[in-house]
Predict the 3D structure of the following.
Amino acid sequence: MTPSSILIVDDDTGDRKLIRRLLKKLYPDVIVFEGESAEQALKFSDERIDVAFIDYLLPSGSGIDLITKFSDIWPRALVFIMTGQGDKEIAKTAILAGAGDYIAKSAITLTAIKRMVSNGMEVADMRWRIEEHQSELQVFSDVLVHDLRAPIRAIQFLSDQIIEDYQAGDLEEVKREFKLMKNSVQKMSDLIEQLASHIRPDSECQAEVVPVKSLFADLRTVLAHDITESNAQISWHSGDLNVRCFAPEVTQLLQNLIGNAIKYSPGARPEIQVMAMGHEKGIQVSVADNGIGVPPEYRERIFEPFKRLQQTSDLPGSGLGLATCARIARRHNGKIWCDPDVEKGTTIHFTLDLDAQAAVQPVPTFGAARRPHA
């Protein structure tokens, strides 16, 4: 794995220069940020940081004190603690505080940095995936306990009613109750499928470089029935781009977004614009609609599992669709966010940043797209 951005925090100009030179020799395209103190380092909070080298002794205190703050701002960042002298106790304290490794400045060489960053990023990525999967499993178990209770109780109640009405000879009522039971079973089945889709790791899926227009073509086929039934008007702008991605997952992501745009356009003909543009190592896709919109206070929370707006509580759905979208975006080293500057309807942007074939023909920025903080 190769870092795209690295932060060096050290009050010694010579040490920073040495580390920067070694990093640039190893990773010519890496972006290097520098700070002399904790205060300067935290000014980069809007940037994406993959790796941080922090001096143990800083003007305002210990570099170890920064680790907790870093984990809040950059939860996936790999942190290394440096010190002028080797010290086993400092090394132990650093590791326990969450550092990926510890190194004496006298031992900093090209080989040492390459080994630390390469091994550390693999371990950190594996740990992050394990923690994320554990969190997903916890959500899964909570929902099984909570959301499946209602349909199960309904089936139990209807079973008793069917027996009672059958014995009384009221077959019409029995028929109606069987239909209600079928609906409850279908609700259980749909919820289980949505949960399985949300937590499935899809480890067998292989990333490949595909034209964005082919993703859109597949999507139009998948959504043909919904588009026809809703009379939705959708415009597609692929920008003649190619992207490296897990194609079935990206199709699912877009299907969820466009499906929501259709569902949340009550009383109006859905008008949807889907636009792709070049973005760093991959692409950014924007889906804009003329629906009911998302209140500002919900625009970050809607990507959490089972978070639904109060005004949509009477519409079908489990609240997993956008959480699944966020999961797919993360799997592609990307982000997903609701545009904060849109006043009518909703515009959702997401990025796919796997190492990819460069954009062939960039297109103008769509709306007021802004990437969220890393």
Q: What stands out?
A: The chain has three domains: 5-128, 147-199, 208-352. The mean pLDDT is 80.
